[in-house]
Write a structure and sequence with these properties.
118 residues, alpha+beta, 4-stranded antiparallel sheet, 3 helices, 4 strands
Amino acid sequence: MANNILQLLGMVVVFILILAATYYVTKWIARSGAIQPSSKNIKVIETFKIAPNKYIQIIRLGSRYYSIGVTKEHITFLSALDEEQLNLQELDAALPNATFVDVMSKVASRIKKKEEKK
């Protein structure tokens, strides 16, 4: 009887740990920006962080490219860009229907590169 109670408590603890790990990994993936919703006409091409909560982004709207400044409270138009000004080779190489394993390996490699730079 006591053995069954210990097994039940062990399973409850393992279940709680799995739920906590799932919660934190999901939040980490959401913050990393690795997974973005897809759209046919609007796409964020590249994001560069210049300060906390301040970014410069290159976006595509239809067939045109623009650079914008993004803060927590505002979005500012910076300039229109020609496709010739951009290096889109890496974008063309990306798989549009990437699997979960592909996304996780890409995120892991980015984290590893950041850690190597430190």
